[in-house]
TrEMBL record:
Record keywords, A-Z: Repeat
Name of the protein this chain belongs to: Pentatricopeptide repeat-containing protein
Organism per entry: Quillaja saponaria (Soap bark tree)
Gene3D superfamilies on file: Tetratricopeptide repeat domain
Keyword Repeat: yes
Length: 508
C-alpha cells in the first residue's frame, strides 16, 4: 500500500482541534491534535531493558564527563538497540546537549544501528531544545537511511521524507516535542531539493489545522519557483495561504496564517527574474489588498522592474514615495536607480543619485562604478568613463572583465588603439585580468588598419595563448593589412589558411 495512502488512513483516525488554543509564546505546548496521534507501539520492556535504560541515564547524568563514556561502554559493550537508545534519549529530553553527545557517541563508536524511529527521537529532543542545525543534520541522515517496504513502483526519493514525517508524528507525544520540528523537516527537504514531498507534508499538516511558520512556507514557495517555475510558485502561494475559494471548500482548515512582506518580496523577485513586470505589479497591489506594509526591498524590486524596461519616471516616483514614508534607500536601491538612468543614457541624473549616495554615507561598490562607466560609454564619453574607472581603482575596487571590454571597445571605435593597449596592460598589471576575445579582435583590427602588422601578430599570439582562436574578422584584418602594404603573397597564404579553417569547422 503506498505510504501516502497509509498516512492518510492514519490521519483519518486522529482527532484534532485548532492550534489557536496554543499559546503563541510557548513553543513547547502540545496541541491536542498531537496528543491523539498513535504513538509508536511500545516495545517489550523486560526488567533487563528497564534496568539498562535507568542505569544508562544515571551514568550519563551523574558521572563526570570524562568517565561517563568509558563506564557506559564497559556496561554495554555490545551497544544499544534502537528502542533502548530512544528510551534513554527521551529521559534526557530536558538536557538536549547531553542527548546530542550521547547520539554522536553511539554513532562514532557504532554502538547503535539507528533506524528511523531512533533518529526521530533525537530529532524531537533537539528540536524542542532549539538545536536547529544539529536537528536538520540528523533529519537529512534519517531521510537517507529510511528504508520503505511495500513501495514497489513508487518514487523512493519522494517517499523517504514522508516516512520520516510519519515516524515523527508517531513519536511526537512521547518526546514532548513542538510543531517546530516539522518546520525543520520541511526545510531539510527543501535543502535537498525534495520539493514535492515538502508540499505533501505541508498539505497534510494544514489539512489537520497545523501550519508551519510563515518563513517555512516562504522557503517552500521559493523552492517551487526554482524547480517548477514561478507560475507554479504563485499557485502554491495561493493554496498555502488559503486565497483560493475552490481550495478552501475542498480542504478543511482550522489554522490560517497570513503572508508577510517577505512572502510578497520573494514572489516579486521571482516574477522580476522571469521578466514579467505585470505580475510584479500584481503582487505589489495584492500587498495593499491584504494590508501588508511594504518595506524598502519591496520598493527596490518594483523599481528594478521599471528600470529594466526604461520606465524611469515610474521608478523615480517610487523612489520619492519610499522616502516620503521614512524609508532610507540602501546600497541595492541606489545601484538600481543609478543603473536604470545609465541604461537610458541619462548620465547626469545617474551622477546626481551617485552624489546623493556619497553624501548620505552609503559606500559605493564595483557595481555602482560599472553602471556609471557603462552610462558614459553609452553616450560616447570615453574620457569620463576613464575618469570613473580611475576613481574606482583608487578605491581598490576590482572591475569586471565586461567593464574592460566596454572601455577597450569604445577606445578602438574612436581610433585610440594605443590608449586601448595601454589600458589593457594597466588592467592586467593592477588586477591580473585580461579582456575577452572580442577586445583582442578590436585591438588587432585597429593595429592592422594602422599598418602595425608585427604588433598585431604579437597580440594575436597572446590571444591564442589565452585560449581564443582566430576568427574570420581577425583573418580579414590581417589580409586587409597585408594587401595595403602590397604583400599579396602573405595575404594569399592567409586566405588559403582561413578557407581551410572554415572547412574544418564545417566538417566537425
Amino acid at each position: 500500500m503506498p505510504i501516502c495512502w497509509c498516512l492518510s488512513l492514519h490521519f483519518r483516525q486522529w482527532r484534532f482541534i485548532s492550534l489557536n488554543s496554543l499559546s503563541s509564546q510557548s513553543n513547547l505546548a502540545k496541541p491536542y491534535f498531537f496528543s491523539t496521534f498513535p504513538s509508536s507501539p511500545p516495545s517489550d520492556q523486560t526488567p533487563t531493558t528497564q534496568s539498562l535504560v535507568s542505569t544508562a541515564v544515571s551514568i550519563l547524568t551523574h558521572h563526570r564527563s570524562k568517565s561517563r563514556w568509558s563506564y557506559l561502554r564497559s556496561l554495554c559493550p555490545n551497544g544499544f538497540e534502537p528502542n533502548e537508545f530512544s528510551k534513554i534519549t527521551i529521559d534526557l529530553k530536558n538536557n538536549p546537549h547531553l542527548a546530542l553527545r550521547f547520539f554522536l557517541w553511539t554513532q562514532q563508536k557504532s554502538l547503535c544501528n539507528h533506524n528511523v524511529s531512533s533518529y526521530s527521537t533525537i530529532i524531537h529532543v533537539l528540536a524542542r531544545g532549539r538545536l536547529k542545525s544539529h536537528a536538520q543534520d540528523i533529519i537529512r541522515t534519517a531521510i537517507r537511511a529510511s528504508k520503505l517496504e511495500g513501495c514497489d513502483g513508487e518514487d523512493q526519493s519522494a517517499s523517504k521524507p514522508l516516512k520520516v514525517f510519519e515516524t515523527l508524528v508517531k513519536t511526537y507525544k512521547d518526546c514532548g516535542s513542538a510543531p517546530f520540528v516539522f518546520d525543520l523537516l520541511i526545510k531539510a527537504c527543501l535543502g535537498s531539493k525534495k520539493v514535492d514531498p515538502s508540499i505533501e507534508i505541508v498539505r497534510m499538516l494544514q489539512s489537520r489545522g497545523i501550519s508551519p511558520k510563515v518563513s517555512t512556507l516562504n522557503s517552500l514557495i521559493c523552492g517551487v519557483c526554482r524547480c517548477h517555475g514561478v507560475d507554479a510558485g504563485y499557485a502554491i502561494y495561493r493554496e498555502l495561504f488559503g486565497l483560493d475559494t475552490e481550495f478552501e471548500t475542498s480542504v478543511r482548515r482550522v489554522v490560517r496564517v497570513r503572508p508577510n512582506v517577505h512572502t510578497f518580496n520573494a514572489l516579486m523577485l521571482c516574477f522580476h527574474g522571469d521578466g514579467s513586470v505585470d505580475k510584479v505589479e500584481e503582487i505589489w497591489n495584492e500587498m495593499a489588498k491584504l494590508d501588508c506594509a511594504r518595506n524598502s526591498y519591496s520598493y527596490t524590486v518594483l523599481m528594478a522592474a521599471y528600470c529594466e524596461e526604461g520606465r524611469m519616471g515610474q521608478a523615480e516616483k517610487l523612489w520619492q514615495e519610499m522616502k516620503s514614508k521614512g524609508m532610507e534607500p540602501g546600497l541595492v536601491t541606489y545601484n538600481t536607480i543609478i543603473g536604470g538612468f545609465c541604461k537610458t543614457g541619462e548620465i547626469r541624473r545617474a551622477e546626481e543619485f551617485f552624489r546623493d549616495m556619497s553624501l548620505g554615507g552609503t559606500d559605493s561598490t564595483s557595481a555602482t562604478y560599472e553602471h556609471l562607466i557603462e552610462g558614459h560609454c553609452n553616450v560616447g564619453d570615453v574620457d569620463s568613463a576613464l575618469l570613473v574607472y580611475k576613481d574606482m581603482c583608487r578605491r581598490a575596487l576590482r572591475p569586471e572583465t565586461s567593464t574592460l571590454d566596454m572601455i577597450i571597445g569604445i577606445l578602438c571605435d574612436k581610433g585610440r588603439i594605443h590608449d586601448a593597449l595601454e589600458f589593457m596592460r594597466s588592467a592586467r598589471s593592477d588586477f591580473g585580468i585580461s579582456p575577452k576575445g572580442k577586445s583582442y579582435t578590436a585591438l588587432i583590427k585597429g593595429l592592422c588598419n594602422e599598418g602595425k602588422m608585427e604588433e598585431a601578430l604579437k597580440l594575436q599570439a597572446e590571444m591564442v595563448g589565452k585560449g581564443f582562436e582566430p576568427n574570420s574578422e581577425i583573418y580579414g584584418a590581417f589580409i586587409g593589412g597585408y594587401v595595403r602594404q602590397g604583400n599579396e603573397e602573405v595575404a594569399g597564404a592567409l586566405r588559403k589558411e582561413m578557407l581551410e579553417s572554415q572547412m574544418q569547422e564545417k566538417e566537425s
